[in-house]
Amino acid sequence: MAVGDFSSAQEAEIDRAIRGAETVCRFEFSVFVGPTPRDTRAYAQRLHAALASPARSVLILVDPAAREIEVITGAVVRRSLSDEAVRLAVAGMESAFAGGDLVGGIKHGVGQLAEAARKPVTLHE
């Protein structure tokens, strides 16, 4: 599914998930879905750096055609969101995507990241 393939209802679903996540953890969330250059991580980092408040932001990049997912977190977010929590959210998104549910996977990932970010990171993680 390409970016232009989202219906307005699907875009609204993703937007509601983002707004809900921002309310839950007080960080900003952005989602990019579309084709990316070969170095997906570097591209995601550039997109994240261009956000209004990158230190307090989470960027989720999904390139369905290349089967790539990147999650970039800002410095302030990393104090609350562990790498393990990010890995778990990505695994959940991958599972939904494999089942053909791009919108559901994005919504689930956004929600899972927000819930994890509202809890402080402990030293044993």
Description:
The protein is an alpha+beta fold. The chain has one domain: Roll (Diaminopimelate Epimerase, Chain A, domain 1). It has helices at 8-25, 40-49, 75-78, 83-98, 102-117, and strands spanning 28-33, 57-63, 68-73. Strand 2 (57-63) and strand 3 (68-73) form a beta hairpin. It is globular and about 35 Å long. The chain starts with 7 loop residues before the first helix and ends in an 8-residue tail after the last helix. 29% of the residues are buried.
Looking at this protein, list some descriptive labels.
about 120 residues; alpha+beta; Diaminopimelate Epimerase, Chain A, domain 1; 3-stranded mixed sheet; 5 helices; 3 strands; about 50% helix
Short characterization:
The chain is α+β, with helices and mostly antiparallel strands and 125 residues long. The protein has helices at 8-25, 40-49, 75-78, 83-98, 102-117; strands at 28-33, 57-63, 68-73. The chain has a single domain, classed as Roll (Diaminopimelate Epimerase, Chain A, domain 1), CATH 3.10.310.50.
The name of the CATH topology is: Diaminopimelate Epimerase, Chain A, domain 1
Q: Mean pLDDT across all residues, rounded? A: 92
Helix content: 40-55%
In angstroms, what separates the terminal alpha carbons? Answer: 35 Å
Structure classification: alpha+beta
Compute the number of structural domains: 1
Share of β-strand residues: 15-25%
